[in-house]
Write a structure and sequence with these properties.
This protein is mainly beta. The chain has a seven-stranded mixed β-sheet with strand order 1-36-28-27-25-24-31, with no helix packed on it. The protein is globular and about 60 Å long. Strand 19 and strand 20 (305-310) form a beta hairpin. The protein has five helices and 38 strands.
Length: 525
């Protein structure tokens, strides 16, 4: 998962790298039906009895795409990406391995030859793809390009892409590290060159590369943004050496616990100015986060753009995610809002961001597509049976894969709410971890979204179904928790088209969700 970033706590070998949160359980409301990974299904009413009418002002539909006659897309997770012309998806880095294993030395829990050594261009309209093998580039460039959990920012007006850090194998494949690198290129010329099968020399000429002698780019599991010409490198960690689930002496790990704010010298990758928004002295270290859902946002109280950090792992001393959001508006500090309490999907997954400015109480909606979460709702009979078996064996660490689609909302009056959509991911599939959602570029260019990509709900006609973007790849699990340790996950290559309809929609209050375990596991020293 996002290569399920290397946490070094002793976590019960059960789930998704203690990734976070809990899977789904069978409920009287059931699931929407459909075939799961294990081939079973759960039939439910169209609107569950516990659904609240008109809970959301929109509905979302996720339709898996079938590209008949085309070669399958690659299976990649923990990649960085961008989407242009409502069609071309550029994929860099990541892994072809499912959830990494949790075995002791001498096992490599991150398999070296599972690193994605290709840059892919996927045509989501036609199902065709093109690729370029980065091993044909110089080792100092090809190694970071194959790392996972990098940070990326695409400056659409200038077509400039910036990729920072990432965790992966060094060029000699002798050890793992967090790369202290920044890579820059123009998106559309690189996409065109790969689609036209240009030479390695031509591809190399399009890529700019630098490192920082002070190590300020050595971050993985964070996110990269730009506001007012300043880059914001939000949270993450620096991990060097071999990941070991039960600890060890062959690694070092340090969370940044800050947002690094910097500018680059024009036409170069040299840091021109640098500072940081430092951490908090709160007892639970609220900035001790990585691999969460840090996304573009609109402040419902003011209508101004901001950065929102949801979830993330791990709270110091416990295998536990953060459940309250943090907002970043400027380099002056954080708005840490402990009044919000998100139950579902705290680990990285696709997030669809929608703002309804026309409401009497303007509201920001963030919809989370599966992944991993401490709470769950939907589950097929076989998924529930596996979940119960692992729980009885004492291997439930509280962080299963989930099939739930949920929306966490924040309103102008300061209130929060959370709802479970009445249908899970089609087929009750346990997918979404480390995958991304991309909104159509045409919406950004035409003002159907804010410049930061947040969808403007009032721009959509009532009751009209509209394709708004896509979801691809990520980790998929056979069961919420693995029946046998170190088994049961793989990388998906599914593409889901996402459709929005502006219409009042029933949803289930998150209070009907189930905690996967009574308490989070505490690390005993």
């Amino acid at each position: 998962m996002k290569t399920l970033h290397f946490f070094v706590y002793k976590i019960s070998l059960v789930i998704f790298c203690a990734l976070l949160i809990a899977s789904c359980s069978n409920n009287s409301s059931g699931s929407s039906g459909g075939s799961g990974v294990n081939g079973d299904s759960t039939k439910t009413d169209t609107v569950p009895h516990n659904a609240q009418a008109n809970a959301l002002p929109f509905s979302l539909e996720f339709v898996q795409q079938a590209y008949n006659g085309q070669a399958p897309f690659p299976r990649i997770q923990a990649y960085v990406s961008l989407f242009v012309e409502d069609q071309y998806l550029l994929i860099i880095g990541g892994r072809r391995q499912g959830l990494h294993t949790f075995q002791g030395p001498p096992t490599n829990n991150f398999i070296p030859d599972s690193s994605n050594n290709y840059i892919f261009v996927l045509d989501l309209r036609t199902g065709t793809s093109s690729s370029f093998n980065v091993d044909s580039l110089s080792p100092d460039l090809s190694a970071p390009l194959q790392s996972a959990n990098q940070e990326i920012y695409y400056d659409r007006p200038t077509d400039q892409v910036y990729i920072i850090g990432g965790y992966g194998w060094n060029a000699a494949k002798t050890n793992m590290l967090t790369f202290n690198t920044i890579i820059n290129f123009k998106a559309k010329p690189l996409i065109a060159a790969i689609r036209n099968r240009q030479s390695p020399a031509k591809i190399a000429s399009l890529l700019n590369f630098a490192s920082d002698k002070l190590g300020r780019f050595a971050v993985t599991g964070g996110e990269l943004f730009m506001r007012d010409s300043k880059f914001y490198l939000v949270f993450g960690q620096n991990f060097t050496g071999q990941y070991r689930a039960f600890g060890g002496s062959d690694f070092t790990q340090k969370y940044t616990e800050e947002t690094r704010v910097f500018t680059l010298k024009p036409n170069t990758l040299e840091i021109l100015s640098y500072g940081s928004i430092p951490g908090s002295n709160n007892a639970d270290h609220p900035l001790h986060r990585r691999d969460g859902n840090t996304v573009e946002d609109i402040d419902p109280a003011t209508g101004a753009s901001r950065i929102a950090a949801f979830g993330g792992v791990f709270q110091p001393g416990a295998i536990a995610p953060y459940t309250y959001p943090i907002y970043i508006k400027s380099p002056s500090g954080y708005d840490i809002d402990t009044t919000g309490n998100q139950k579902f999907s705290q680990y990285e997954c696709p997030v669809i961001s929608i703002f309804d400015s026309a409401s009497a109480n303007p509201t920001m909606y963030h919809t989370f597509f599966g992944g991993i979460g401490h709470y769950y709702y939907f589950q097929t009979p076989s998924q529930k049976a596996a979940f119960d078996t692992v729980t009885k064996e004492g291997r439930n660490d509280g962080f299963p894969f989930v099939a739930d689609v949920t929306t966490f909302l924040h309103s102008k009056d300061g209130s929060y709410n959370e709802f479970i959509h009445t249908n899970p991911i089609p087929g009750n599939r346990l997918v979404g971890a480390t995958a991304k959602f991309w909104v159509n570029e045409s919406f950004i260019l035409k003002g159907v979204t804010y410049p930061n990509g947040v969808i403007k709900l009032p721009m959509f006609s009532n009751n009209r179904k509209t394709l708004i973007g896509y979801i691809y790849g990520g980790i998929e699990a056979q069961n919420p928790l693995p029946l046998a340790p170190n088994t049961g996950t793989f990388v998906s290559n599914s593409v889901f088209a996402v459709y929005l309809t502006r219409t009042p929609t029933a949803a289930i209050p998150a209070s009907f969700g189930h905690a996967s375990s009574k308490d989070y596991q505490v690390i005993r020293k």
